[in-house]
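Hi team,

Below is the intake form for GDP-fucose protein O-fucosyltransferase from viral metagenome. Please confirm the fields before the structure is written into the shared record.

FORM ID: S-0412
PROTEIN: GDP-fucose protein O-fucosyltransferase
ORGANISM: viral metagenome
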Amino acid sequence: MHNIICLKLVSYPFFGLCNQLYSIAGTLTDAIKMNKHILIINNFQTDIHTHETVPLRNILDLYKTNLFLEKYNIKILDTNYLSITINKITFGLDNSVVDVTNEILELCNSYFLKSNILHISKDINLCDLKGDPLPYVTKKLYLDYNICGYNFKAEYVEQNSHLVNHIHINLSYLVHDMVKTWNTPENQLLFNEILQNLHFHSKYRFRANKIMESLSTKSNINVIHLRLENDAINHWARLNNMDEGLFKKKLEEKYISLIETYINPKDITFVLTYETSNNVTNFLQLNNYIFFYTQKRINDGREINAVQDMCIGEYCNHVFIGPIESSTFSNVLALRIKTFHKKVSFNMEHILEKEKVINASRLHAHPS
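The structure came back. Fields below:
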């Protein structure tokens, strides 16, 4: 299985939506450079608090994503929907072989069919299956098999009529964890391109499209990623050497200043947040901005709602405001917004620093 790499997304229990997307993009980046052809991914975590999961294909449109990945000769598979087919097993050397497919499968068939796992024990005497095709010569067991339409060939050396090691192919056992090389200079272009082209399941696109159709407008559409949730305040207050109350005040002031500077009250603005009661939303209301929240489906889970927010955010065609440099959600959304006038970024690690503005002439640019 040298062409396969596996990713266990939920090995980190507090991975939100975008950390999981980062993990997929980073692993694909590594896999492409290692000339792997299949990435098998296990379940997607739908909520960092409950740790509930769903099959990956409930989140990503794997068909469309794999169409994009064709140019890199790699495909994503969902571990919940895998199948192994044995084409042929032969024993011998080069062209002097005997077909032992039926004999091998008969020995391990019930286990194989039940678990979708192929295990060929080194305790099997291979010469007892159909005789010794080449006496007094070291031979090999040749395995030809198929995983979800992809064909693989492998060969295993025998010693004294037995395999040196067990053959064990278990596609449910995922051992590859999150990679750590996301933002290295040599990886960043490919990493970002993959993040831009991970396609979400059509149901999320459909909901986002219905919301946009209900507006019946050709107005500019702005998007604000309002990162005022308690976990953000706690985390970035410490990095700014501020108490939480002061940091939240400075963060709200930052958002209000950017809104006043870059957003026209008459445009439509979507506010992506879980924290709807704060000084920023009060400012929007008091100053008659036309703005909307996205409806959160609590039972769906935090990360599912984030997927829906992401799909709505991609409809931004004018101004995007968010902490692109410090929030993975803002970073991914900024990469995925294709048409825009300005992307306005600030760094929550240095809340007092001035914002950075990416103009439309720098399409897809990302501040380092």
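SUMMARY LINE: The chain has three domains: 4-78, 84-170, 202-362.

Thanks, M.
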